[in-house]
Amino acid sequence: MANHNHKVHTLNGDRCNSTTIVTKKPKLSSPIHITDSEIQSEFSHHDPDVARINNGSFGSCPQSVISAQRSLQLLFLRQPDEFYFNHLKPGILRSRSIVKSLINADHVDEVSLVDNATTAAAIVLQKIARDFSEGRFNKGDGVVMLHYAYGSVKKSVEAYVKRAGGHVIEVQLPFPVKSREEIVTEFRKALERGKENGRKVRLAVIDHVTSMPSVVIPVKDLVKICREEFVDQVFVDAAHGIGCVDVDMKEIGADFYTSNLHKWFFCPASVAFLYCRKWSNKGDDDLHHPVVSYEYGNGLAMESAWIGNRDYSAQLVVPSVLEFINRFPGGIEEIKKRNHERVVDMGEMLVKAWGTHLGCPPEMCGSMIMVGLPACLGILSESDALNLRTHLRDKFGIEVPIYFRDPKDGEVSPITGYARISYQVYNKVEDYYKFRDKIKELVSDGFTCACLPP
Question: Where is the Aminotransferase class V domain (predicted)?
Fold first, then answer.
């Protein structure tokens, strides 16, 4: 690939310096190591009274990156025209080039930056809807997605693809999950249902890490099955991907892959990437941003880089995020490894204290894990789960999502509630001890969710 060099100005205090953008592989480690006290300082803007064990929902952004973002915002406000003509496009290209190297894509033009994974899903699913409505796919052809797909993605499939004539088949996944083989088996069954009556499966939507309940899906296995079964295209929704699990486009082999950068990659909200495998996509010129600007028709990356006057600083600050990450020995790879090991340790500590079990084997979680809650808490509905989450936040300063598992007919399972705990670099063991002890206190007091106001 040709080497792209561009000039971009970045703020250094009050001075504006010129640097050269080179699209080489980003450095993944640094001799200047961050200390524990520096980590806590980077996240000192977090509420100190809250055990924040829910990084998975909104992510976290260090102070140094917030400062870099603020500098970019002020640079724009000082002279918007100069910023637009001289900084915006080369700055976004630099961020795309970093992402391209991190995910092992072939070309930088395979990478577009968008607001979030929901926007990326809309781009892909609107294209599939056009394929149905314009006759490239037959009405009734199949679209397969996981039952545990993220809610907004399921709604997008309904809004775009189903309305255009696609037949949606959901992969019924078990929970708790015992093995990867369970997921592979159910996925094969769904593909078979999708091909009934001579239909073709046109798209498979596969999560890399399901949100709720949280489980790492064997995406490489499922993509390989899709190729064997002649599924037209594969879209991997990896909202929790980069910074949480291994993300390698050549190894995964999907046609489309999206991941937020503000969940596990320390970017401010909101920025995500959408990878579109250029050499294999059919009609990749028909991928468009949902917001049509005058860049329409110039390729998805250009369309996404300008959707009208707005704050683009989250997309431009990726180089500063990489600088922060490289202060950790081993960079993002070691951060992922450490977060995984510690969330497993904390999960096992909690289930031992409560006499429950994990929602999946440790090897099937990334930086989040599902932890069974004591059955005596009486979590009997989704509203109970939400009310308990609110109670933990308001009364105890504990922020953690709660999942209600509805037992199947005839199934006898005492555990119907699970907490999804996360671990990120700013977390401390005390956060999880606080959660452990407050749940034990509730149990000791005879608390049930029926005690909470509706």
Answer: 95-278
Q: How far apart are CA 417 and CA 412, in angstroms?
A: 14
Q: What is the pTM of this model?
A: 0.89
Check pLDDT > 80 for residue 280: no
Q: What pLDDT sits at residue 448?
A: 92
β partners of residue 52:
399
Query: E strands, 120-276, where?
Result: 142-146, 167-171, 201-207, 233-237, 256-260, 272-276
DSSP of 246-297, one letter per residue? ---HHHH--SEEEEESSSSS-PPSS-EEEEE-TTT-TTGGG---SS--TTTT
User: What is the distance of C-alpha 335 from the center of its chain?
Assistant: 16
Euclidean distance between CA atoms 175 and 213, whole angstroms: 8
Coil, strand, or helix at residue 12? strand
- CA atoms in the 13 A half-sphere facing the CB of 97: 21
Instruction: Domains for the chain: give ranges and CATH numbers.
Output: 70-324 (3.40.640.10), 330-451 (3.90.1150.10)
- What DSSP state is assigned to residue 245? B
Q: Is residue 290 within 8 Å of residue 270, measured between CB atoms? A: no
Contact between residue 88 and residue 305 where contact means Cβ atoms under 8 Å apart? yes
Question: CA 114 to CA 311: how far, in whole Å?
Answer: 12
Closest to 239 measured CA to CA, from 270, 272, 216: 272
Handedness of CA 71, 77, 79, 80 (dihedral sign): positive
Q: Please list, in sequence order, all residues whose beta carbon lies within 8 angstroms of the beta carbon of residue 111, skipping any fewer than 6 positions away.
A: 96, 99, 100, 103, 105, 273, 274, 275, 301
Task: Specify the 3-state DSSP secondary structure of 111.
Answer: strand
Distances (CA, A) of 260 to 70, 116, 272, 284, 382: 20, 6, 4, 22, 26
How many other CB atoms sit within 10 Å of the CB of residue 82?
12
pLDDT, one tens digit per residue, over 118-161 is 999 999 999 999 998 898 998 989 999 999 888 889 898 889 98
**Residue 220 phi/psi, 5° resolution?**
-60, -40
Interatomic CA distance for residues 363 and 242, integer angstroms: 17
- For 124, the token pair is 């892909």
Q: Would you say residue 196 has pLDDT above 90?
A: no
> Per-residue confidence at 406, pLDDT binned at 50, 70, 90?
confident
**CA 260 to CA 99: how far, in whole Å?**
11
Q: Which of 4-13, 88-97, 163-172 is predicted least confidently? A: 4-13
Task: Give the pair of three-digit tokens for residue 279.
Answer: 């050499």
